[in-house]
Every structure is written in structure tokens, then in C-alpha cells.
Specification:
The protein is α/β, with parallel strands linked by helices and 280 residues long. The chain has 9 helices and 17 strands.
Length: 280
């Protein structure tokens, strides 16, 4: 199959293509093969006309080569190939929100680490510049949603019915209920624990987790996946550090072992990150 890129022509055998997805560039596509990603100058609808029966359109933005699919979970939207997998629902969330200019942030921590308190302080600093919506995920109650609503931000409560996390599909349903038509920033305050939420891609642009001083500085060693998937780690409640056996520099080192790219920001219990940190 022949494709045109910037100044080059590619010949790619059908059997080597894993999937094709719409590019953020107008009338462009990205072809993902077993070895590389190639951006081509051709609209997805036009390209679809040249494909044979082995290709299946899973979404208006993506076409997969069924001959290379090892498993397709229709419930979770996860497609597994030989050496990689893609979460279609999460990817669709990201792209749909990007098209609308909406930024989705996934906030995670253990119970009591200070998610809601930190979030209320952050909203106070940003609400004059951004239209903010918050999805509060809990097994039960609407306490946190009420607290967030008092800041003036749009807020809804999501009851998980006993589930310990939100996945991409539940996140999509929450966004639909929240109505993102008048929102710039959506924050998903995930269910409080350090295991399950880290295992599911919600479609968020960035993942942020809060580690509170009373939990101990060894948590990055005990919960490696959580710290591996996060872009930012807030070390909260440092104002009570003298009462706990917590070595903040050792904690930073443990986080670097799991995720050298994670940004670590210390926070006081009743002080949110600075506007500059939040913006970054």
C-alpha cells in the first residue's frame, strides 16, 4: 500500500499495519506498524476506501488491522496486539476533549491524603482564569461534591457502586453528565486508594497523585505503578513532618526510581500548589 508523507512515498505491506488513526493535523493520518509510526497526508475517510476486508473501523478516528489483533475487549475498549495494546475508549476521551479545548486531569491518592482540600485551594486560585468542573468519584455519599460546589466550580458526584476506580467508559459518562460545553478544566477526583486507579487509563491528559506525610516516605516502593503513571506528585502535609518519620529527600529518590520524569511538589496541609506549579 502506498502513502505520501512530507516529501516521501512509503510502501507499507498490509500485514505490517497494526492500526491507523486520525491525526490532529487537518486531512492527515498516523499509520502505526509493528516497528514505527508514520504520519501521512491523507484523510482517514479517503484512506479507508483503499483498505480491504481485514481492516475494521472501531471508531470514527481509528481503523485496526484485525489480522494483527490478538484480543479485542468490547467492554473495556482495549485492543491487544502481539507486543502492545491500545485503550480505544481512553484515547477517544483524550482526542474528543482536545478537540473541544478541554483539559482533563486525573487526581489520585489514598483516602485522607488531602485531595479535596488541595482541590478547593487550587480552584480558589484558578477560578478567575479558568472554567472548572470536578467529578467526585466515591463508592457512596456526596460529601466531596458538596464541598467542591461551595467553591463555585461545577461539580457532580459519581457513585461507583463498590468499584475501587474509574475507567475510561465511566469517565466518559461522567463528562457527559457534567457537560463540558462551558468548561476549560475538568478534574476527576478518583476513588481513594493507591492500587486500582493506577491500573486504568481514564483518558486524562495528566495524572496527579497526592502522597501525605503521615503515610510514610516508602510508599513509592510499595505502590510502584501509582508513582510510575503520575506526571506530578504532591507531597502534602509537610507542616506536620516533624511529628512523623518522613524523610522528604529519601522520598524524592524513591519517586525518581519509579518515575524520573515526575515533578515533585511539597505542599502544606492548608496551602495549594502555587499558580505557577499548577499551570506547569
Amino acid at each position: 500500500m502506498t502513502f505520501m508523507t512530507e516529501g516521501e512515498i512509503y510502501q507499507i505491506p498490509y500485514r505490517d499495519i497494526l492500526y491507523i488513526e486520525k491525526s490532529i493535523k487537518e486531512n492527515g493520518c498516523i499509520i502505526v506498524t509493528k516497528k514505527e509510526r508514520i504520519e501521512v497526508k491523507e484523510a482517514l475517510a479517503k484512506l479507508e476506501e483503499r483498505l480491504d476486508s481485514r481492516f475494521y473501523k472501531t471508531h470514527r478516528r481509528c481503523i485496526v488491522n484485525l489480522h494483527n489483533v490478538k484480543r479485542f475487549d468490547f467492554n473495556s475498549g482495549i485492543i491487544k496486539f502481539e507486543e502492545q495494546e491500545i485503550d480505544m475508549l481512553a484515547r477517544n476521551n483524550r482526542k474528543d476533549l482536545k478537540d473541544k479545548g478541554v483539559f482533563l486531569l486525573n487526581l489520585m491518592s489514598s483516602p485522607g491524603a488531602g485531595k479535596t482540600t488541595t482541590l478547593t485551594r487550587t480552584i480558589e486560585q484558578l477560578k478567575d482564569d479558568l472554567r472548572i468542573g470536578v467529578m467526585e468519584a466515591d463508592i457512596d455519599s456526596d460529601v466531596d461534591a458538596i464541598t467542591i460546589a461551595e467553591t463555585g466550580a461545577k461539580a457532580i458526584q459519581l457513585h461507583t457502586g463498590g468499584m475501587c476506580h474509574l475507567d475510561a467508559d465511566m469517565t466518559r459518562q461522567g463528562i457527559d453528565e457534567l457537560d463540558d460545553s462551558d468548561i476549560d478544566l475538568v478534574v476527576l477526583e478518583n476513588v481513594g486508594n493507591l492500587v486500582c486507579p493506577a491500573e486504568f487509563d481514564t483518558g486524562a491528559v495528566k495524572n496527579v497523585m497526592i502522597l501525605s506525610v503521615p503515610e510514610g516516605d516508602d510508599k513509592p516502593l510499595k505502590y510502584p505503578l501509582m508513582f510510575s503513571v503520575c506526571d506530578v506528585v504532591l507531597i502534602n502535609k509537610i507542616d506536620v513532618m516533624e511529628y512523623f518519620d518522613f524523610d522528604i529527600e529519601q522520598c524524592r529518590e524513591y519517586i525518581r526510581r519509579r518515575n524520573p520524569d515526575a515533578k515533585v511538589i511539597p505542599c502544606l496541609l492548608y496551602t495549594s500548589p502555587s499558580p505557577r506549579d499548577v499551570e506547569e
